[in-house]
Amino acid sequence: MTGVSLMPDAAHPLGSLSAVESQGLPIEGMHKFLPLNTMPSPTLRTESKPAALTPAAVVSMMNQTVPKTAKLTIGDLQIDLPMLIGTENEIAIDIRQLRAKTGAITYDPGLGNTGACSSKITFLDGEQGTLRYAGYSIEEIAQKSNFVEVMWLLLHQRLPLAAELAQFSHDITYHTMLHENLKQLFSSLPKSGHPMAVCAASVGALSTFYQDSSSGSDEHNWISAIRLLAKMPTIAAYSYKHSIGQPFMYPRNDLSYAANILYMLFGTPCEKYEPNPVMVRALDLLLILHADHEQNCSTSTVRTVGSSGANLFASVSAGISALWGPLHGGANQDVIEMLLSIREGKRTAKEFMELAKKKDSGMRLVGFGHRVYKNYDPRAQILKKACYEVLDQLGRKDSLLDIAIELEQIALNDSYFVERKLYPNVDFYSGIIYKALGIPVEMFTVFFAIGRMPGWVSQWLECRKDPETRITRPRQMYTGATVRSYTSVEKR
Ligand code: ACO
Description:
By secondary structure, the protein is α+β, with helices and mostly antiparallel strands.
């Protein structure tokens, strides 16, 4: 295949916002993507977008004009591909007809350039370091909201009315208990097993207790969503209690979502345990910051499994497994272990940095870098500040915070990290707060999973309702042997 080029077509003026409003179509009610020439767009931040378009196209965009189609030339064949734009001006080339028209597929390992779905839930601009839940900035949400409200926001993409919030809060409080037989599943697993494996198994097992989850009806999907959001803290706490051989603590309906988690984790039947309000607020903040992050590895997994028609529990169980990996949510455990090994004198911060820069060392600076953020992860920014506040409010000091700050300073002044735009991600500072709350290191990723649950559930529900959803089934570039004849084992 030679002479492949992807060029924007001639520019077309953008439709104006008033033109759309005059048709009585609120933006929310419009089809999620409109062809570029009909989509209202205030400005395009071309300066922050990766430089993929021709200078002429960039100029036309700055003049508020955008191409309607992209032209793809493969040898003598030229086709037009429609261009789409999202509500935050993200542009996409619609390649759904590509293979049918050309026989070619796109090659994009890791899907870094591929929009696999459209979504109204979370917006993320990695170049600017922006994160919004249904339009609300993560900074404002972290300051003013709480995790239960954030769950509702992600599920419905609008803030709840007082009565809606009260009903939802009631529902996820009154579905927290696990079926007594499910408790036996924990007992049958080794105590030394990682709690993420225990959680994945338990969430998967929920579909054996709630077989209506496979009916596929909207009503049953919603009931499954409530059950999962309500029961995940109980499952998480039981996975810990099992690992240390303590009795499981039944949930308490008089406590808030976050307070109940701490109670089930740290309470025992022998004495009264009242969660510390500072710890409750700190945990609530952590959960809010983890609640959704658009099409990350675990969420894509949940959507992929769900696209086959599998039920919510099966899909989220797969998402928990994806989150466990050290390149994803598992990094929060690795960060603390790295900081501890520096404190214990096994390696200095500088030695860690040097190893992370050497490709053959097999090491990376955990808690640094991100597929999408090429700027400071706004969640890490909030958590860094929260580390100081929480330690101060709890009257504690932690030298791990000093080590983390030192590592960050070295990295932000090192050309290797600067050139690659590697900044601290959400996992870099979260562990210091988890540790201050007394949460054991192997439970860090489980807490990430509790936080991410509303994101997984919301994305799964959205995927199931989207008429454009198709079973996820990518293509491949085959590079193996071409056709050959079978030789029997004696003759090989
Ligand atoms: N330390 C050292 N070098 C790094 C790091 C790091 N943490 N992250 C990326 N790089 C380098 C890569 O070696 C590569 O260098 P090269 O261009 O010379 O080959 C370049 O930066 C780009 O990295 P990629 O691996 O191509 O980036 P990708 O988007 O595929 O990976 C990832 C993103 C997995 C997060 C990566 O940055 C990483 O491994 N970070 C450490 C693990 C981590 O913190 N994960 C949590 C992420 S946040 C979350 O999932 C909740």
